[in-house]
User: Fold this.
Amino acid sequence: MAKVLCVLYDDPTDGYPTTYARDDLPAIGRYPGGQTAPTPEAIDFTPGHLLGSVSGELGLRSFLEKAGHTLVVTSDKDGDGSVFDRELPDADVVISQPFWPAYLTAERIAAAGNLKLAVTAGIGSDHVDLDAAIAHGVTVAAVTYCNSISVAEHVVMMTLSLVRNYLPSHQVVLDGGWNIGDCVARSYDLEGMHVGTVAAGRIGLAVLRRLAPFDVKLHYTDRHRLPEAVERELGLVFHASAAEMVPHCDVVTVNAPLHPETEGLFGDELLATMKRGAYLINTARAKIVDGDAVERALCSGQLAGYAGDVWYPQPAPADHPWRTMPHHGMTPHISGSCLSAQARYAAGTREILEAWLAGRPIRDEYLIVDGGALAGTGAHSYSVTK
Ligand code: NDP
Assistant:
């Protein structure tokens, strides 16, 4: 019987919801490109309910306990003596989320003698030391595509919100004011701007597709080129590297995984090559940018705005400088955890567990590490240091 240790974010401050703003979710059976949405044998939760917080338990408890497995759910993941550290040594499976990451460092993996499977209930497995997972034969899996469109929508929202100066203008309303000049002195149209994405995978391409109707000029860089037909359809300009692309862009969005190739990519040097007054949107991972360099670029005016939902570490401390830097539109890490996405990543986590517990192969598209090597989606999107 397996012990499943699941780390989730806290319930809402006023308690686990008993009612919801909407009664249902649109049914999404397939993603762009044809991959099917999760196909577990069954689910024990109501799509549209809060599943990603501690009391939501990803809807896994009755499924696991009926089969004789143990489920431990906690949000207590950091600091000496955390529940996560206490429960880890005999856990067979760890489930964590990028929004509230239980960092599976090399030390923790070494201390987790039973660990065989690390599941990301979401996308982005950089909170797992992939080198250590490979060395210890731990399988790493994620629910690929579950929240890619959710993030793409967040990127579009943040792009418009920065360029049009939405948040400060909304603040004027909240403050009882009406100074139009205050609102519009930093407000522009997106139309005609050059927008570039670093990476055009599931999220990056979805962002490009969603922005195309705004009559912008679209650019991208990626390790692999998109099919010619897609480039033609969207009028994309390909650049061999981020360094080649960013000087041409008014808006840059980062949609690449965090791995050795992308860590620290946006430092002082690259930021200095961007157009003065460019906007940078990063919903991928915070460590792809140098946090201090971003703050400097906002203060100097080199960047007109920065937005995203990824921080390091997470949760960000109350005095994190990004909370108070000028012209930012940050949210906590929420883009991939709306209720719509939660229904998909809870179902996908269940699908992965059903397969693994029954000794069946996990879908290739969900695999990041398997059999002591990068595998499936991981082999395509990640690199490791050894
Ligand atoms: P995909 O794997 O579909 O796409 C990632 C793309 O990045 C691939 O096209 C890959 O290239 C490309 N890439 C990898 N390394 C580089 C590089 N050095 N330079 C340029 N491109 C590179 O992933 P998704 O689009 O689904 O997700 C992207 C990232 O977004 C995730 O890794 C995660 O970190 C983040 N994310 C954030 C969420 C949030 O809630 N904020 C939720 C979900 C994801 P190729 O395959 O061509 O080699």
User: Anything to note?
Assistant: The chain has a mean pLDDT of 97. Residues 98, 122-124, 147-148, 151, 198-204, 221-224, 255-258, 261-262, 283-285, 309-310, 333, 335-336, 380-381 surround NDP (CB under 6 Å). The longest strand covers residues 303-308.
